[in-house]
Amino acid sequence: MRARDTDWDGVRLHVVTGKGGTGKTTIAAALALALAADGRKVLLVEVEGRQGIAQVFDLPPLPYEERKIAVAPDGGDVYALAVDAEEAMLDYLEMFYGMRQAGKALTKMGVIDFATTIAPGFRDVLVTGKTTEAVRRKAKDGRRVYDAVVLDAPPTGRIARFLNVTSEVADLARMGPIKNHADLVNGVVSSPETAVHFVTLLEEMPVQETLDGLDELRAAGLPPGGIFTNMVRESLIPASVLDEAGENRFDLTELALGLKASGLTDGSSDATAVAESLGEEIVDHARRTRLEHRERASLDRAGRPRYELPLLADGVDLAGLYELAQSIRTQGAA
């Protein structure tokens, strides 16, 4: 396996969050592929019960078990786990109390479902616990089972609470298995082995949520990671033209003459109509480009490593996923 310098050397748990609609699950999947390249073994975990990983990789719904779902560039393997809070609870009872059979009986009675419903934080402890156990797990030869774990986490608005709930549980439980479990989880989540990455678009609301999320992480003492700006569109129009359009100095007459001279229109009236239509699109594009420049500047002021991923013309299929993974590697994020 070839050694490779990245921005996140030493990080083994990559938590990926983002506002809904930013492509959080897609970027988590692409990051897992990028991290697994060159013969590594990576686990991709989801915790929201949406089967998003299965959809991204075009697979049937995933069971509650770790299974190989993809081969990364140069021979690495990506495994996936869709965490189920109920099954995680059974694992917990077996690990600390040897009570898996009793746990199954409780499941039939609906006790576990009742507990996780009235105490949502308890559910978060279970799913983060399952994830951090995979981070810590070692094989018989003493080596880590996974080189890295990628967690497709809840949205930005509740990421700090989701990750910090184990600390609150540790404060409430002064001793015993629950306290020990919470301390183990918190020890991984708040350590330099973890980085919380944000996925955003170059739009005002997701950028603001990203900045707010970074502030909340810092306040909670959790380790911020990088910012992945998704669906970035490359401008095909010269900067000088965009500047003119953005300042309402765009010359439609010159555009109409150009269309007519190039033979793209049949006559003066046709050229004028086409120029007016194109002009409106160019002005809209110029305004959007200015907005994107402003949002980029806001993200840059956050002082975190930032990566830009392209808008895929054909949508996100498997080929597109590998294209995103390559872009992540090229920019040094994996």
TrEMBL record:
Transmembrane segments: none annotated. InterPro entries: ArsA/GET3_ATPase-like, ATPase_ArsA/GET3, P-loop_NTPase. GO terms for molecular function: ATP binding; ATP hydrolysis activity. Residues 13-172 form the ArsA/GET3 Anion-transporting ATPase-like domain. This is Anion-transporting ArsA/GET3 family ATPase. The lineage of its organism: Bacteria, Bacillati, Actinomycetota, Actinomycetes, Streptosporangiales.
